């Protein structure tokens, strides 16, 4: 409550015109030294990671940032710094093979796909050129871990639902990828640490007009995560990766001239057991409804039914998409670190307190030490 007392909430409509937004900012008494833009409109009826969503994402998200920048000018607000958060898709790894690790100065593969990050970034840089007293930052997290009541994307939330249902059925938690994906080390971005990095970036003069990757600095494999997940929710073990190649349905991504790297064979997402198919199973739906009923009101929403498109994302996140570099933010002086496995556990605990998912059955995660 003491922290909240320092915050004033002003409701604005980012889909409104710049002039209307400016009026809303003025009415709210907004004075901005530092602006952090996290506005995002998710696609309807399709995963945000699906290439089919690209055009819809551009049409929805480019105008809201344009409107906001116009509102700043119309309201005569002159912030010292504007920070725009985009993400790992900046590098095009979701398209296909790309140069690794992802480095902030890598060329953006604008010729290969539509990505709303690029026009947003262009508008921000142009705004700062036209307003020399304002500088910019772009922050690029990878697989954000955080607790909110509604999120356009939350790649880790479905795993808690799957684990709860499998535990209730006394069945192991299944992994749908192959052995290489099972052992691959993935980097994630805890929202709190990304917030600290963002605050650091806007307050450091040397960081003006720079883009930075953001991640926890603690690679986590699915092998490690799944075994902890089973312990957290009391599932009787883990059904690990399928070893029979004939049982996989591969999603083939781009290679050659059609991938960001410009050469090399296509990359693949290997799926033997689909989380999206699991979510459509009536037995699993009924089991989760039973879990809600038995919670005596502690679970207040049906996150299973409300997040069906998120299960599609589970199939995608097995993909060995590659590692972002930490060299730049380390060289500029940021030394933050988070144990990702502890961060996911904290997220599940927070979401349970919010009545969104079942609570873990253990007190704490085992840190990666």
Automatic annotation (TrEMBL):
Q: Name one Pfam family in it.
A: PRISE
Q: Which residues form the PRISE-like Rossmann-fold domain?
A: 33-242
List the InterPro entries: NAD(P)-bd_dom_sf, PRISE-like_Rossmann-fold
Domain of life, per lineage: Eukaryota
| Cited PANTHER family | 3-OXO-DELTA(4,5)-STEROID 5-BETA-REDUCTASE (PTHR32487), NAD-DEPENDENT EPIMERASE_DEHYDRATASE DOMAIN-CONTAINING PROTEIN (PTHR32487:SF29)
Provide the protein name: PRISE-like Rossmann-fold domain-containing protein
Write the lineage as a comma-separated list. Eukaryota, Fungi, Dikarya, Ascomycota, Pezizomycotina
């Amino acid at each position: 409550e003491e922290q909240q007392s320092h915050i004033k909430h002003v409701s604005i409509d980012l889909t409104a015109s710049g002039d209307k937004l400016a009026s809303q900012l003025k009415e709210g008494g907004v004075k901005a030294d530092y602006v952090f833009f996290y506005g995002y409109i998710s696609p309807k009826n399709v995963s945000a990671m699906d290439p089919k969503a690209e055009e819809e994402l551009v049409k929805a998200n480019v105008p809201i940032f344009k409107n906001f920048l116009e509102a700043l000018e119309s309201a005569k607000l002159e912030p010292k710094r504007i920070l725009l958060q985009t993400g790992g898709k900046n590098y095009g790894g979701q398209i296909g093979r790309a140069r690794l690790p992802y480095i902030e100065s890598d060329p953006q593969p604008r010729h290969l796909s539509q990505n709303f990050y690029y026009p947003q970034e262009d508008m921000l840089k142009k705004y700062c050129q036209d307003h020399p007293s304002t500088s910019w930052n772009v922050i690029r997290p990878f697989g954000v871990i955080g607790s909110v009541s509604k999120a356009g994307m939350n790649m880790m939330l479905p795993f808690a639902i799957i684990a709860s249902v499998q535990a209730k059925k006394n069945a192991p938690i299944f992994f749908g990828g192959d052995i290489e994906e099972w052992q691959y080390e993935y980097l994630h971005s805890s929202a709190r640490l990304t917030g600290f990095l963002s605050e650091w970036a806007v307050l450091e003069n040397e960081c003006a007009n720079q883009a930075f990757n953001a991640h926890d600095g603690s690679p986590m494999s699915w092998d490690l995560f799944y075994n902890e997940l089973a312990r957290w929710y009391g599932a009787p073990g883990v059904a690990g990766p399928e070893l029979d190649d004939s049982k996989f349905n591969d999603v083939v991504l781009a290679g050659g001239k059609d991938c960001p790297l410009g050469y090399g064979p296509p990359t693949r997402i290997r799926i033997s057991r689909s989380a999206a198919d699991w979510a459509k199973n009536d037995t699993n739906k009924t089991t989760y409804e039973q879990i809600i009923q038995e919670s005596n009101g502690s679970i207040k929403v049906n996150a299973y039914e409300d997040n069906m498109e998120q299960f599609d994302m589970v199939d995608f996140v097995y993909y060995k998409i590659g590692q972002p570099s930490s060299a730049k933010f380390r060289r500029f002086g940021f030394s933050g670190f988070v144990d990702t496995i502890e961060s996911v556990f904290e997220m599940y605990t927070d979401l349970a307190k919010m009545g969104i998912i079942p609570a873990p059955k253990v007190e704490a995660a085992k840190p990666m030490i």
